[in-house]
Design goal:
By secondary structure, this protein is an alpha/beta fold. The protein folds into three domains: 85 residues, no CATH class; 269 residues, 3-Layer(aba) Sandwich (Rossmann fold), CATH 3.40.50; 62 residues, Arc Repressor Mutant, subunit A, CATH 1.10.10.10. It is built from 18 helices and eleven strands. Strands 1-2-6-5-4-3-7-8-9 form a nine-stranded mixed sheet, with helices on both faces. It holds the Pfam family DNA_processg_A. It comes from Actinomyces oris. This is DNA processing protein DprA.
Length: 455
């Protein structure tokens, strides 16, 4: 019986990989096994010639593509029957399949199909147990590879790995080298996943926006999922300073959720929208979990800003840990259900993230940023101690004064143990430095108003 055929050359690696991204669900262990062992084209040939007959029906006892049971099947199962069961998952999608249509849609959208091993393929994806077959990208795919990796591939030119638009094509791919439009800074194009709850609070939204903006201004690239809440705030914050990357659970032709279409359009214009499924695919619930592994894999570190106890953002955090990535979490009010997931991560060893310096320290190589040193130098954070910068005599006088009430010079003399002359001289110095003031009732400490109500 004549085998079923597809209306294009399945020996073309791009067409074969794109076809598998349509046939199999993301993170499919079985598809990853077959394609990984045989290659995308021979794996397709097995499905078309061995597993399915000319009418598109799955054969009851096909020759196994590899001499072992598919993942997840019972160990005592019949190997041919098990592979027939697997083929039955893919066969229905063969009907009317012409992946060139999806590629035409991508082309009309100005997008790119990125294959493993190509210059813009994020190397972190190769660390996944089941990496994507390809990436469908709208926007600038060069952002998916940081400056250091571009330099390793011989594409670096100038600061932060910039390569001019008129540079030569990448050898063997025909792909032009694009200029990386990342701000120069210690993060130097490194990807930071910033994720969190859809049902976010104003506190979480403010933190996410601030972190994303601050990290991008220092050269980092924010990666998130384009969802409502924290994801959207991460993208908006990043867009204030540079590009950002959004990883979609559906096809890149569908700006989902519709309520974030404006943000996603800005992401495409400035950065990149990425998916591992072709245009036309719906963002099903199961695909969001698979999408999270891509976010974690292409990023050097992951930070969670607000998450419920069973938040989907925690799956991104767990994937990051599995891949050996750095993980941080933003603490929230102990009474907030929106932060219990973050507190759960912190108890298990995630790094506490409170500002941009913390995020940069997590993202950059060890020693590049010292967040604690930066805080020590911040007068708002250090509090400018009461006695800082004072000589011993002035310190004694100021320390002898009541915290709130006024005191006479004589009272301060007795409390400080200094002579009247020493006390008077010190009070004059303290008045000039703004530490004390003279009032009708005596000398009083000055308490400048500060944010947070600190004295």
């Amino acid at each position: 019986m004549t085998p079923i055929t597809l209306p294009y050359d399945i020996d073309d690696p791009a067409l074969a990989r794109a076809t598998w991204s349509r046939l199999a669900e993301p993170d499919s262990a079985t598809a990853a096994m077959v394609v990984g062992r045989l290659g995308p084209s021979p794996a397709l040939r097995w499905l078309l010639e061995e597993a399915v007959d000319s009418s598109g029906q799955v054969r009851s006892s096909p020759r196994p593509p590899v001499p072992q049971l598919p993942p997840g099947m019972p160990s005592d199962g019949d190997i041919r029957a098990c592979w027939a069961q697997v083929a039955a998952r893919w066969a229905p999608r063969l009907e009317g399949l012409d992946i060139r249509r999806e590629l035409d849609v991508l082309d009309r959208l100005g997008g790119s199909l990125i294959l493993p091993g190509e210059s813009w393929w994020p190397p972190g994806l190769d660390e996944l147990e089941h990496p994507p077959f390809c990436l469908w990208v709208r926007g600038d795919p060069s952002l998916l590879v940081n400056a250091a990796e571009l330099k390793d591939k011989g594409l670096g030119g100038g600061e932060a790995g910039n390569a001019g638009d008129d540079a030569q094509s990448v050898a063997g791919t025909g792909q032009p080298v694009r200029e990386q439009r990342m701000p120069v800074g210690p993060a130097s194009g490194l990807c930071l996943a910033l994720v969190g709850a859809r049902a976010s609070t104003r506190y979480g939204e403010g933190v996410a926006t601030s972190l994303a903006s601050g990290v991008t201004a220092q050269g980092g690239l924010i990666v998130s999922g384009g969802a409502f809440g924290i994801d959207a705030c991460a993208h908006r914050g990043a867009l204030r300073e540079g590009p950002t990357v959004s990883v979609s659970a559906g096809g890149v032709d569908r700006l989902y959720p519709v309520g974030n279409a404006g943000v996603l359009e800005a992401v495409i214009a400035s950065g990149a929208l990425v998916a591992e499924v072709p245009p036309g695919c719906q963002p099903g619930r199961h695909r969001f979990v698979s999408r999270n592994r891509v976010i974690a894999a292409i990023s050097r570190a992951t930070i969670v800003v607000e998450a419920a106890w069973r938040s989907g953002a925690l799956s991104t955090a767990h994937r990051a840990l599995e891949l050996g990535r750095q993980l941080g979490a933003v603490p929230g009010p102990v009474t907030s259900m929106s932060s219990v997931g973050c507190h759960r991560l912190l108890r298990k060893g995630a790094v506490c993230i409170t500002d941009t310096d913390d995020a940069l320290e997590l993202l950059t190589p060890l020693g590049t940023v010292d967040a604690d040193a930066a805080k020590e130098q911040d007068p708002e954070l250090s509090g400018g101690g009461l006695l800082d910068g004072l000589d011993p005599t002035a310190s004694l006088v100021l320390d002898a004064m009541p915290a709130r009430a006024a005191a006479s010079t004589e009272s301060i003399v007795r409390s400080s143990g200094l002579s009247p002359k020493e006390t008077t001289s010190a009070l004059g110095i303290l008045e000039l430095s703004g530490k004390v003031e003279r009032t009708a009732s005596g000398w009083r400490r000055r308490h400048p108003n500060r944010s947070g109500g600190r004295d």
